[in-house]
Amino acid sequence: MAEKIRLLMGSDKAGFDYKEAILADMQSDDRVEVVDNLGVMSDDLDASSYPSVAIAAAEKIAAGEADRAILICGTGIGVAIAANKVPGIRATVAHDSFSVERSILSNNCQILTMGQRVIGLQLARRLAKEWLGYAFDPTSHSNANVCEIIDYEDSLTD
Questions:
Q1: What confidence tens digit (pLDDT) does each residue in 38-58 have?
Q2: What one GO molecular function would you report for this record (predicted)?
Q3: Which residues make Cβ contacts (< 8 Å) with residue 58, sequence separation at least 6?
């Protein structure tokens, strides 16, 4: 059996309901080990901000504590922007099957983000499962593009 994907789940208040539904799916998925549940833990008024959730998830991935994350906010945009500020992270909003596929196969994204206010729950659940089924092929043509992104990012810290 292949090694399980170490997955983080997270949301702010605007993504709480979808995070809970997808988290339940992930906890019963044999391909996954959910290693952390970040952000809002109940539907209350004391909500974590989307940047704090996204940055925490991205930092854990960058540190090697997890392989991937699924983050939910109102639109998916805010958590993607915040996660992408962490060096070494590639996060994307994807609300359709083709984008979910290409986020891994063309871009080796570690973080999938979605918006509770812009996508139906059943589609979000399906896309999360699909996303976990893809693996980046470092021998593919796309590897050169991913390496170019990494090289540019590395040049910023030199």
A1: 887 765 556 688 999 999 999
A2: isomerase activity
A3: 69, 82, 83, 84, 85, 86, 89, 91, 111
- Please identify which of the residues 22, 55, 66, 73 carries the catalytic annotation: 73
- Evaluated on CA atoms 136, 100, 83, 157, the torsion sign reads positive
Look up 109 and say whether it is catalytic: no
CATH code of the domain containing 33? 3.40.1400.10
The encoded tokens of residue 47 equal 């909500």
Is the pTM higher than 0.70? yes
Mean pLDDT of the 68-74 span: 97
Separation CA 139–CA 82 (nearest Å): 29
Torsion sign over Cα 22, 47, 111, 72? positive
How many structural domains is the chain composed of? 1
